[in-house]
Amino acid sequence: xxxxxxxxxxxxxxxxxxxxxxxxxxxxxxxxxxxxxxxxxxxxxxxxxxxxxxxxxxxxxxxxxxxxxxxxxxxxxxxxxxxxxxxxxxxxxxxxxxxxxxxxxxxxxxxxxxxxxxxxxxxxxxxxxxxxxxxxxxxxxxxxxxxxxxxxxxxxxxxxxxxxxxxxxxxxx
Length: 173
Ligand code: NI
Fold this sequence. Notes:
The protein is of the alpha+beta class. The chain has helices spanning 26-41, 129-142, 153-172, and strands at residues 46-48, 58-61, 74-84, 88-95, 98-108, 111-116, 122-127.
């Protein structure tokens, strides 16, 4: 397993729609392992393939927040939201591609998602609470959408300017 470099916003690759995955092979399994390792190392609770510059439809999640909870890593290939609740929920979101910036985003409180597992099986599951927010946030990444796209333009521009400054500082050091 290896850590992958996480792209930082603004980056054109974070704004692109990604391609569906047609077959599960060793390369893809390696990518899933690397993405989980990169996510846990960050640390974060979700990561989408385009965030590590792979323009494919795959996300990884582990939203177990309790210190003593067992890890619950999930790998979702070609995930699709097939149902959303009318009830909505507000969570303060962040993103590994937009470090140290947080903002409240409103989304459906529950979603049903269909995806392909690494063993090739089609899965369908309902997500609620933090898991619902996280899975929607990560699926958005596959369509080039970031959580700041839900914010008012002024707030979004403010965060983007901070990230441009951060990237300049990172490039210098
Ligand atoms: Ni994100």
